[in-house]
Amino acid sequence: MKLIWELALQGLLNGCIYALIAVGLVMVYGLLRVLHIAHAGLFTLGAYVSLVVTNATGSLALALACSVITVGLSGIAIYRFCYEPILSRPPYVVLIVSIGLFIMMEEIFRIVFGPYGLSYLKPPLQERFTILGTGITAAELSVVLITIVLFATLDAFNRFTRIGIASRATVSDPQMASSFGVDIRLIRDMTFFIGSAFAAVAGTMVGVLNNLVEPTMGSVPSYKALAIIVLGGMGSIRGALASALFLGLIEAFGTTYLGTLLDRDAIAFTVLLVVLMLRPAGLTGKKT
Amino acid sequence: MSAYVLSIVSLVGINIILALGLHLISGLCGQVSLGHAAFYGVGAYTTALLAKAGYPIGLTLPAAMAAAAVAGFVVGLCSLRVREDFLAIATMAAGFIFLGVVKQNEALGGEIGISGIAMPSFGRDGFVALELGVTVLVILFCLHVRRSWLGFGFSAVADDDVAAQMVGVDNRAYKLTAFCIGTALAGLAGGFLAYYLRGVSPDAFGFTASISVLCMVVLGGMQSIAGCIIATTILTLMPEVLRFADNYKLLIFGALLFLTMRFLPDGLGGLFALARRKEAGPS
Questions:
Q1: Would you list the domain boundaries of chain A?
Q2: Predicted pLDDT of residue B256
Q3: Cα separation, A75 vs A81, whole angstroms
Q4: Domain B3-279, CATH 1.10.3470 — does that match?
Q5: pTM of the predicted model, to two decimals?
Q6: ipTM greater than 0.95
Q7: Is the CB of B90 less than 8 angstroms away from the CB of A281?
Q8: Judged by CB atoms within 8 Å, which residues 19-58 of A form the interface with B?
């Protein structure tokens, strides 16, 4: 029984991280129909900015703020300089641009910060609690709480603010939204900012959880997040949250009970293929 | 020719076969695949297992093609169910499942792979000659397919599969055919690779490999066979040419990929078309 609780907790934690990463990808996909692989590079950038600022100032909160702003602005820059000029091209062109960008980012991190990764001088959020008989660190608890708060805020933002509604309108019909006076470019900048900011939070939390920030930490999210947005039905934020948690749990239990047959990635992708065969538009997607 | 040049040339040949396979699927027939390396791997592992069991190259290579084509047929069936970006992700999933099965299966060598494959009886030079000969045949075959009725059907499906269906093109059959031929070529390339490296290991057939093949095809311009061959040659030679810049090799690779597609979205094929128009003069 204790094992099951621990696996569930581990799955939930990974699921939360996946969700924070995938949400940016989902928002970008919904708006532009672009598979934004370089998003995983922004996730790594967020981890590095947080680590460097925390080690310099000692404040994780300040570091998180710096990270969110830097990465958010980098997200906008990527949209403006890399994607916007080639949006009219077939999707695979933008995909390769994004992959090239991701490779470059990984290499720049390696050259600037070294190949072996950096650690926090004084690892933050290390206090331990016991909940339902299972030990949990403050860092793990923060991941879950941050995910709940951020997703609730994002959902409320999209539902109740003018700009959130405008952004949903742009997702469903850009031309119509534009003719009703929505500034499409502003919406796109905002989407990249918010999505990248979520990735910065995810990167920071992964860095704190493992007490290690490596140049290659984005390579698993770079493809796993694609699986999540497909599972969730491309473009749906709630679907992404649900499928991220689902995938986190499947992986945690799957590697324990099926680990001799398939490795972690193969388990995740087998589930993905089965879902796609049964529901070609994803778990929550509507038939087109 | 020195051993070094021979080895580089045969690697270029293998990659050209591999990339042309994906060119048929993604370029001609428009089904973007992010899992092409899995079929490359199926071919390589089939060859490795059979060669270790003592079968000659005349049997292992056709077997590799057949095994990869069967795998391709199965994934092709999946491709009928999903479209565009979903298809790309589904093929990516197939790649990871292949890798997972191979890594956890001791009979396939697990994480380490299979080593100690004997060179075919006709020696290394004969092998390179055979491989380059086959490469030329594959190029001619692809040129022929493009001019044939089959290629015509492929491009109809690539342009708009619903419209193609409307005018009586059986797009399911065309997509499946493209997958089978393309993956059989990947299997052939994998078979040559197994002999070339004298062994196989799972890491050679991962997501990164699938991405680099796709880069060769897209950089070549999706529609252009000549572009595809040139892009494959450049991308294969690049690690050798950039050896002096070892630490920055991958950075330059990423930058090249990024800059080419950002400023030349039609790839090298687009560049040729532009040159041809210029030659023809202003109309």
A1: 12-115+123-216
A2: 83
A3: 10
A4: yes
A5: 0.87
A6: no
A7: no
A8: 29, 33, 35
